[in-house]
Design goal:
The structure holds 2 protein chains of 2 kinds. By secondary structure, chain A is an all-beta fold. Chain A contains no helices and 11 strands. In chain A, the strands form 2 sheets. In chain A, strands 2, 4, 5, 6, 9, 10 and 11 form a 7-stranded mixed sheet that branches. A 4-stranded antiparallel sheet of chain A has the order 1-3-8-7, with no helix packed on it. In chain A, strand 9 and strand 10 form a beta hairpin. Chain A is globular and about 40 Å long. Chain B is built from no helices and 11 strands. Classes of the chains: A mainly beta, B mainly beta. At the A-B interface, strand 5, strand 9 and strand 10 of A face strand 5 of B.
């Protein structure tokens, strides 16, 4: 149980275009979803926390207009990277949590390459 | 501020034992997590400690001392597949995870 999927698993896009990444909790309802970014050889960096039906809370330094997060239902959150640039190339990982349950369940990640 | 410290890299021999240490400072505390992450993959959950003491789970054990703000992950009978990064994360009073930079563990034959 507690499976989280992400789609796509990898994507290559041209500079200036937008990319949408989906995160789904397959067998549970996630009250909270988290979006992380990880650059090579670095640890996870939390970008934002989203609760179903409310606006996402962004971490300091993360542009909310560039990284649009929508948590439309208890099983789906989306991250849209708008006007992507090469420096946005990274590994994006989502995780989901049930209420105040201690564990976060991670998706497999999406590798974004912007050319 | 909130901070997690763990060594950047460690090397160990196949079949041996290795201990990865982690110290933390958080605003409130709701537990300490260890995750394993292989290159190019998402983290996978290893352990969770919220009370002092040692939790054993097969070849992996995790220890917590809340008074010292200290935890360690102990890996026994090391296998080549254990080569990975090990991430320490503390949950603060807002139930947010504060992540360490990860310890890259290199296993040599």
């Amino acid at each position: 149980g507690a499976v989280v999927s992400q789609h796509p698993s990898w994507v290559i896009c041209k500079s200036g275009t937008s990319v949408k990444i989906e995160c789904r909790s397959l067998d549970f309802q996630a009250t909270t979803m988290f979006w992380y970014r990880q650059f090579p050889k670095q640890s996870l960096m939390l970008m934002a926390t989203s609760n179903e039906g409310s606006k996402a809370t962004y971490e300091q330094g993360v542009e909310k207009d560039k990284f649009l997060i929508n948590h439309a239902s208890l099983t789906l959150s989306t991250l849209t990277v708008t006007s992507a640039h090469p420096e946005d190339s990274s590994f994006y990982i989502c995780s989901a949590r049930i209420d105040r349950d201690y564990e976060q369940y991670f998706g497999p990640g999406t590798r974004l390459t912007v050319t | 501020g909130q901070n997690i410290d763990q060594p950047t890299e460690m090397t160990a021999t196949e079949g041996a034992i290795v201990q990865i240490n982690c110290t933390y400072q958080t605003s409130g505390f709701n537990g300490l997590f260890w995750y394993q992450q292989h290159a190019g993959e998402a983290p996978t959950f290893l352990s969770y400690n919220v009370l002092d003491g040692l939790e054993e789970k097969g070849r992996f054990s995790s220890f917590l001392s809340r008074s010292k703000g200290y935890s360690y992950l102990l890996l026994k009978e090391l296998q080549m597949k254990d080569s990975a990064s090990y991430l320490c994360a503390a949950m603060d009073s807002n139930y947010q995870l504060i992540w360490g930079a990860g310890t890259k563990l290199i296993i040599k034959p």
